[in-house]
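Side project, low priority. Logging it here so it doesn't get lost.
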Amino acid sequence: MNHAGPARPVHDVVIVGGGHNALVAAAYLAGAGRSVVVLERDGHVGGAAVSERPWAGVDARLSRYSYLVSLLPRRIIDDLGLEITLRRRRISSYTPVPDAPERGLLIDTEDAAATASSFARATGDRADADRYAAFGARLAPLARAVFSSMTEPLARPEELRRRVGDDALWHGLVEAPLGELLRTQSPDDLVRGVLLTDALIGTFSYADDPSLRQNRCFLYHVIGGGTGDWDVPVGGMGRVTEALRDAALRAGARLRVHVEAVSITPDGEVTLDDGEIVAGRLVLSGVGPAVLSRLLRAGGATTDAVTPAPEGAQIKVNMLLDRLPRLRDREVAPEQAFAGTFHINETMTQLDTAFRSAADGSIPDPLPAEIYCHSLTDPSILGPDLRRRGAHTLTLFGLQTPHRLTTDTDPDTIRAALLLAAERSLESVLAEPLAPLLHTGPDGTPCIEARTTADLEDSLGMVGGDIFHGELSWPWLESDAAETTPGARWGVSTRHDSILMCGAGARRGGAVSGLGGHNAAMAALEILGRAG
């Protein structure tokens, strides 16, 4: 049925895509008295920030895609009255020495002496602990300066550089490939790798990449909350979405699910797959720039260039184990090792070698990966019987697996190959095989699943499986850039005055932060207030 016509109601804001950023924007805008509707193609809101039960009949709620929180500002939590708990992890990381996994590096944020001893055991140099701590202290002013700017109009880099007060650090992070800086922090390949992993989450790059995409990823990973800490959301990531959904509904936003946008016009008309047209004075895009480009072209914006397809670079494996596995390192208990980020085959050399292998079209061997055990920090995600039996979840996040590896191969075949590589990498540091430890569901199926970039593209509409919706950008305004519009000042503009970005594709988007939604809402309120 054709719903077009002059009597069509016009909302103040139509938001396309119902991810967590869309919910943040909806809550702010509706709370300011604006009429807001969110359009989501799936049967629920939240996008990648959800909890699910992957295995039928098994009482385990996993954060299936996004899993940790660092970049969500306290301002958003307080403004929207979000009832969520973020729990800090005492253990920062554990890293087995790849060629001697009976030794490993355990970084305990509450025991400096034990951490120093662990450095000495793993690297042979107790001074590595002091160098590592000094680098963290050096990053602290940068984290505070940049993170405090994220919920304000875009700052200029000159101002942020002045606030940081460390020109050499600024140069190493912003102007030169990250590898140069990391080599000055430690002579040890293992320690350099622990640092470099933060530059490669979902990002296909290497230490000395002249594009600096690894630098931008690293920056986002070390500024969260002004400290760089990554916390576990109690109740799973779905609890964050539930709190945001409730805030949006309380404010008066309308959330529509099972509705898919097929086109957007530059002046704010969104056509749905059943022909209905939803019009807004402004449209906020919670979908990625590549998807928005397609929708605008379908809506008649023929002058829009085709946005290049982004490329994710990760494999995520979710597991439920009857107990934690034993390690080859007998001096570290599994409950300690898995309590933080467990790095596997992630020296700087291994990370760069894996990049070259993947760039040549091969799955890296060994596959660099890291493990998270959320149930150690938050047992509530497991049912009482599983907790009583000592079961635990494990989430493995494999690096250097670009989407291009999945494009010319049968999806099931490449998924199986990547899963095998992930299992082989993990087992290289375990004292026992993984398979016998996997919990078995009522139907006899082992509780393990792999989610490739192709799966993300198919299930969530993330083009190329890119969790950032495209290249991460510096979270400031270029020195010579104009800031003539609210959208430009807040980093959410598009080529069209009536269309703003509100998702991960916004200038300060990426991860579960709500920043894209907050900043789009601030720009929208300026525009709507000016228009009357």
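Brief comment: Residues 1-7 have pLDDT under 50 and may be disordered.
Revisit when time allows.
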